[in-house]
Amino acid sequence: MTAAGPATRKRVLIDCDPGIDDALALFLALASPELSVEAITVVAGNVPVAQGVDNALRLLELAGRPEIPVARGAVSPLLRKLITGEAIHGENGLGGVRLPAPSRGPDARHAADLMIELAQARPGEITWVAIGPLTNVALALAKAPELGELVPEIILMGGALSGGNITPAAEYNIYADAEAARIVFASGIPITMLELGATSQVALTREHLALWQAASSPVARAAAAMADHYLRVYEARGLRGGHLHDPLAVGMAIDKNFARASRRLRVEIETRGEFTDGATVADCRPGQAGRRAPNADVPAIIDSERFLALFLERLTLLPR
Ligand code: BDR
Ligand code: CA
């Protein structure tokens, strides 16, 4: 991997619900010379959307990038009742960590409109990294079906091929708005899906936090404080490390070689199952994968050591 100059940076729009791991993912994107963060759009998810917008603005302020537009999106899923994640992410979504007040407010446009406008302004150039429920993405697609031709790729954190986290069968981001996920997976836009089997290979431990705690960067120290809360939640469940779900999605925007053994699969979203509502169903049986047109690349093996090394170091470099 070589460092990219401004002209060769990959443009990304990050749709998120910050959220501790979303916050860490945003920091990683802002610290990465391979990426140009064009906008941040916020969806209701881990926290209500107003809290998520405030968090995004504060995170950008701390990282020294307040000029990046932040747009407020859906207040609730398309059909479902919002399920928030304060039990994991804390009351304010950032593990109770208080960040400096933002100097700017949110963009006046709705998230879906900003997504559409940016895609139209730079056709084929802006990758969407979606790390929350897929409501905003689905709304944008419903409003502007031509996005299928304009968005080169969606890299999303969501789904589970072998055991969920919000239910035994389903992962949170997909379950939270399964109808939206169904629209997105039917869009024809190339999708890379980082499901739980991949993201749970990357675990942040207390030893890792020491590097950030010792750093002079205010971003690294805020990251350590948020991650401390996140790790306590995992530890209470008997786990030693906290899974870096959303940062891995940004990692894949930086370098696809963090993953190996990707499979092209047809992923369907269950929206009615009694026990499997919100599950991502893919035919992984040998020889069956190509029977129905695939709609997603699903990485199986993550080079977690290399990813973690890059992730840990980069957060100490902010603000740049
Ligand atoms: C996903 O759910 C959220 O709580 C996290 O931010 C992540 O996007 C993991 O299932
Ligand atoms: Ca998230």
Total domain units: 1
| Major beta-sheet overview | 6 strands, parallel
Bound molecules: beta-D-ribofuranose, calcium ion
- Per CATH, what is the topology? Inosine-uridine Nucleoside N-ribohydrolase, Chain A
Q: How many helices in DSSP terms? A: 13
Mean pLDDT: 95
**Looking at this structure, what is the CATH superfamily?**
Ribonucleoside hydrolase-like
**Which spans of ≥5 residues are poorly predicted at pLDDT below 50?**
none
Could you describe the 3D structure shown?
- This protein is an alpha/beta fold and 320 residues long.
- The protein has one domain: Inosine-uridine Nucleoside N-ribohydrolase, Chain A.
- A 6-stranded parallel sheet has the order 3-2-1-4-5-6, with helices on both faces. A two-stranded antiparallel ribbon has the order 7-8. It has a two-stranded antiparallel ribbon with strand order 9-14.
- α1 packs parallel to α12, α4 packs across α5 and α5 packs across α8.
- The longest helix is centred in the C-terminal third of the chain and has 19 residues.
- The protein is globular.
- The model has no long low-confidence stretch (mean pLDDT 95).
- The structure holds beta-D-ribofuranose (BDR) and calcium ion.
- Beta-D-ribofuranose (BDR) binds next to α1, α7 and α12.
